[in-house]
Design brief:
The protein is α/β, with parallel strands linked by helices. Helices cover 27% and strands 22% of the residues. It has helices at 6-21, 51-55, 102-112, 144-150, 165-171, 181-189; strands at residues 24-28, 59-64, 73-74, 87-93, 113-124, 156-162, 200-206.
């Protein structure tokens, strides 16, 4: 883990905390990419290869609104099919920009979490347009202030940027998209690594 980027270190700490401390974990949209048989994407996020093994030791379920990718549970994030205060933890990775009513979605996640339950959210801010035809549209982007408001009911919220200012700009350019390591180094040197002019945000909430 040498030279681990701060946002990846934050994700590692929080996701391992979730899978170590909670038993029933719902992955809305399958964004953790743990099970390729139930997702349209696979591969470790934030370099967390160990999540696949950790998921086998808990009751880990993928929820999606359509059956196309064989989720464990069919359900709409706007009306989650769970009782109040019944779920230990929820992950919601790059989903909220694709749903029509993100405020309603966050309230639903809050409703079904047990007191002390964890919610992990990843959303884009300065990021390119990325719908998936026939599956989801691309509606929204989220600022730091917007995320503070969306998660205001939780008793504890931590928000971390993902990419500094210069790397964010370069990620928007086709030539440099996903090839931003050099510019991340420059951001660190010029004090822009923690900028709120960022590609995405990572959010850890406790109910």
């Amino acid at each position: 883990m040498s030279h681990e980027r701060p946002w990846d270190a934050f994700a590692r700490e929080k996701l391992i905390k979730i899978f170590s401390e909670k038993s029933l974990i719902i992955d809305i949209g399958g964004g953790l990419r743990i099970d390729p048989s139930k997702n349209n994407r696979c591969g470790a996020i934030h370099g967390l290869d160990e999540l696949s093994d950790m998921a086998k030791k808990v009751d880990y379920k993928i929820l999606d609104k359509v059956a196309d990718f064989h989720p464990d549970i069919l359900g709409d994030i706007h009306a989650l099919p769970f009782a109040d205060n019944s779920i230990d933890a929820i992950t919601c990775v790059y989903v909220l920009e694709h749903v029509e009513e993100p405020q309603k979605a966050v309230k639903e996640m809050y409703r079904v979490l047990k007191p002390g339950g964890y919610c992990w959210i990843e959303v884009p801010f300065l990021f390119y347009y990325h719908p998936m035809e026939g599956y989801y549209k691309d509606f929204y982007r989220f600022t730091y202030d917007g995320l503070e408001y969306l998660t205001r009911d939780f008793k504890r919220v931590e928000i971390r940027n993902h990419r500094g200012a210069l790397a964010t700009v370069m990620n928007l350019l086709p030539l440099f998209s996903k090839k931003t390591r050099f510019f991340e180094l420059i951001d660190k040197l010029i004090g822009k690594e923690g900028s709120r002019q960022t590609s995405n945000y990572l959010v850890f909430c406790e109910k």
